[in-house]
Amino acid sequence: MPHGGLFTNNLSNSSVMAMLRSILMGIVAGQRSMTPLAVVAEAARLGTLPDDAPMRGALAHPAAGIAAAALATGEMAGDKLPSAPDRVILPGLLARIATAAFAGAVLAPRHERKTAAVLTAATAIAASYVGFSLRVRAMRRYGQVSTGLVEDAMVLACGYFIAKADPRSR
């Protein structure tokens, strides 16, 4: 076997960090469909998006951040209602796929945007089903509101990491 082994490739540290951010964004989108928009708006505000990220200027505008945060907050509040739809119904999955793919593409370097969009969307689909299964089981023991709040906390922590992480600083 050549030096470096089977898993040797030409990925830079910034590429690995970008892909990690995309996978984490997919997990976030799998739990909350609107949070990816708020996360990329915050990343734009913080200056941690790639310099040539699509819609970087629009996402960095305060109005975009406020609107995205309002959508994410509304979704988080609505999630605690007994009438909240399951995240794995088709409209919910489509929203997760769309926001995940968009956010994944925005977070990635130009040459990795398509891969990141697909990776983020695929992760969001898988995370939707895994998260749904875990949430249903947890709700039987702890109830809808408390499990939703724990889920929100995990989503927000992950989103904060994604927004703050700057792959260019590696």
Explained architecture:
The protein is 72% helix and 0% strand. The chain contains seven helices and no strands. Mean pLDDT is 91; it is low at 1-8. The relative contact order is 0.21. It is mainly α and 170 residues long. The protein has helices at 13-31, 35-46, 56-60, 62-78, 90-107, 113-142, 144-164. α6 runs antiparallel to α7. The protein is globular and about 45 Å long. It has one domain (13-165). The chain crosses the membrane at residues 115-136.
Strand content: under 5%
Query: Any low-confidence stretches, pLDDT <50, length ≥5?
Result: 1-8
Q: Would you list the SSEs in sequence order as H and E? A: HHHHHHH
Q: Could you tell me the mean pLDDT?
A: 91
Q: In total, how many beta strands?
A: 0
Largest sheet: none
Task: Give the CA-based shape.
Answer: globular
Tally the helices: what do you get? 7
Tally the structural domains: 1
- What distance separates the N and C termini? 30 Å
Q: Measured on Cα atoms, how large is the radius of gyration?
A: 17 Å
Helix-strand makeup class: mainly alpha
Name the helicity range. Answer: over 70%
